[in-house]
Write a structure and sequence with these properties.
The protein is mainly alpha-helical and 197 residues long. It has helices spanning 2-16, 20-31, 35-54, 59-63, 67-92, 106-118, 121-135, 141-162, 173-196.
Length: 197
């Protein structure tokens, strides 16, 4: 039980920081667009990466020269593009939350979610490398990994479906502009740390 609790606590604390993936889940939750598929894609992707890290896949990053660099620059490029999109939306303004607003396509939502998850090098560092290396300290690595996976599911479902409580705030265009501005700047800040780190 100690290993499970440690895995849950560490997994939850790593995923709590706002980033591209979390901002996207929040946006989908606020708009009530494809929330279940989006949170499932995030949680299942995290589960795959956590299991890979706990079962020793982290050694691949050390064994393949240049893999970390490719992941870092590819992720930074994607985050710069995604941040620019949000900054453009903030500058343009005019977005409001309407219950009757037409939903974007499920395919687009899932593909964006997959890109924000799998093209983000921080995801690999947190799930595969960090959780994988810390799990080695525990005799029951399975319990540790299960706790971390459970934390991911709890977090994404809470964020996606809990965002509905913020819906009244996001009926105002200014709220969307602030959210888009914060998301865009956050994406660029993460990209900058990837490029300089």
């Amino acid at each position: 039980m100690q290993a499970w609790g440690a895995g849950f606590a560490l997994g939850f604390s790593l995923i709590l920081a706002i980033g591209a993936q979390n901002a996207f889940v929040l946006r989908q939750g606020l708009r009530r667009e494809h929330v279940l598929p989006v949170v499932l894609v995030c949680a299942i992707s995290d589960a795959v990466l956590i299991v890979a890290g706990v079962t020793g896949f982290g050694a691949l990053a050390e064994a393949v020269p240049g893999l970390e660099r490719v992941m870092r620059y590819g992720g930074a490029t994607f985050l710069i593009w995604y941040g620019a999109r949000n900054l453009w939306a903030a500058w343009r303004g005019g977005a409001i939350l309407e219950a009757s607003a037409g939903a974007g396509s499920l395919r687009r939502a899932v593909l964006t979610c997959l890109a924000l998850t799998w093209l983000n090098p921080h995801v690999y560092l947190d799930t595969v490398v960090l959780l994988g290396s810390i799990s080695a300290q525990y005799a029951d690595k399975l319990a540790f990994g299960t706790g971390a996976v459970m934390a991911s599911f709890v977090f994404f479902f809470s964020l996606g479906f809990g965002a509905r409580g913020l819906a009244p705030l996001f009926r105002r265009p200014e709220s969307w502009r602030v959210l888009d501005l914060l998301v865009g700047l956050t994406m660029w800040a993460i990209a900058a740390t990837l490029l300089t780190g």
